[in-house]
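The aim of this short unit is practical: by the end, you should be able to scan a pair of folded records and say something sensible about each. We start with the first protein, listed as its amino acid sequence and then its structure tokens.
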Amino acid sequence: AAACVAGALTLDDAARIVAVRSDALRQLAGHGAMASLGVGQEQAAELVDGRPGVGIAGVNSPSSTVISGPPEHVAAVVADAEARGLRARTIDVDYASHGPQVDEIADLLAERLSGIRPVDTDVAFYSTVTAGRLGTTGLDTAYWITNLRRPIRFADTVEALLADGYRLFIEASPHPVLNLGIQETVDHAGVTAAIVPTLRRDHGGLTQLTHSAALAFTAGADVDWRRWFPTEPAPRTVDLPTYAFQRQRYWLKRATAAAAVGAGHDAAEAQLWQAIEDLDMEALAGSLEIEDRPETVEALEPALPVLSAWRRRHREKSTIDSWRYHVTWEHRPDASTTPELSGDWLLFVPEAQADHPAVRATAEALQEHGAVVRLHAVETGRVRRESLASVDTSGLAGIVNLLALDEEPHPEHPAVPAGLAATTTLVQALNDNNTTTPLHTITQGAVSTNATDPLTNP
């Protein structure tokens, strides 16, 4: 099947190999057995040692090996393994493939598989016979007999794929029987790779296949989704938006001990605390310059562990406190002198809330302090960036934005308040016409300062 998918064999030749080998194995029925052992190849070899005709039929992973041979001797190996507390089970077949018994049907296979015509392909093909990459023109009649005769070096082949840089494995089968072996081999190699099944027993429909294709896609496979849909024309695919990464880490940097101890202090103080942290009495005496006073050094020694523990607790607490993000409110007394304003101030107000009390209060406050106020009404739900950019803002002393007062749903985007959308548009428009006048955006009831201050307009 793999050779056919790779383009090395025609569908007829591939099906012929499957059918002829399966039919030939029936001639061995009743004379052999196979079993799966939950051990590696070396331990499996010890278990089969001394059992006539029993050998390693395949190595699926570092902890899964298949054996084959005469039924009574395979059963004895399974019983021995179970007695040692190892996982072992017989496989539901009555022949012994991948072993000497295949020699009995070699001539039949050579005759019935003659004429197999493999071709070269640009798809890399890895053989479980050689445990490495193989030129596909070598997949002739002799290869498929050898393939059935020799042990399956599956784990070695996966290791070869990993060594060549492959990191995505898709098992095309009616049930994932090799995924576990691949995962164990990947883990044993100490690398990271994605292993994706296709169908599952009792879950062989389109839903399962779609799920598997999605898993492969998220693991980096190039899935042609246009061919996934039978409709004509095929649905148009779009790229997902990317994220503008700023390369800012959101995890904490581990500080070195010296840096943590010496932060904010001079070198001598850092050296002193480092000696205390290390419980280094000799270094402490040197820092305090009391080497020539042994009685003082001796008196300090019992205090060293206490000081070290205190320092460690203090540093840990300071570090943890520095991780916390605090939002606090501070009451500021009214200014003793009232600031005076001058020049023209432009107020952007929602057209539907032009007579809102907050609009009147803001305009009156500005005028009381000497500002000349002009109002510009905005239809928040329909305003466009170009129209706001055309507003003359030259010579202004200040701009005040009250558009957030309109919390009605935006007609085109109901989840967004119209005032919020208009505020965003205003900021963009002011940037478009290169305005340098300060913009003050005012909200009402949008922030709660404490439990008694209700949040009325989030």
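Turning to the second protein, read its sequence before its tokens, just as you did above.
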Amino acid sequence: MPTPFGTYVNVRYLVVLPGYLLQLQFDDGSERVIDFEPLLLGPLWGALRDETLFAQVRVNSDTGTIEWPNGADLNPVILHDWPEYSEQIIAERRARYAAIV
């Protein structure tokens, strides 16, 4: 299904890797490893620097994306097409939380 971010996909499976990395598998068969460390700024995402909390990420089969117990999540299309969106998202987070970093 088309969305403003591209064709909708669901995350089917994930593996937590060392260093704030997640390996994601999507329902179109593609896989991606994403480094979340640059996103871990601010009250919601910064809390995920706690490696125990970060490792509690799960796939929500109702929404088709990943989420953490503290409510952090991302659109699965953005995750799927991460190279296309990552620079902008990381730059926005750094600008928003520059005083905190």
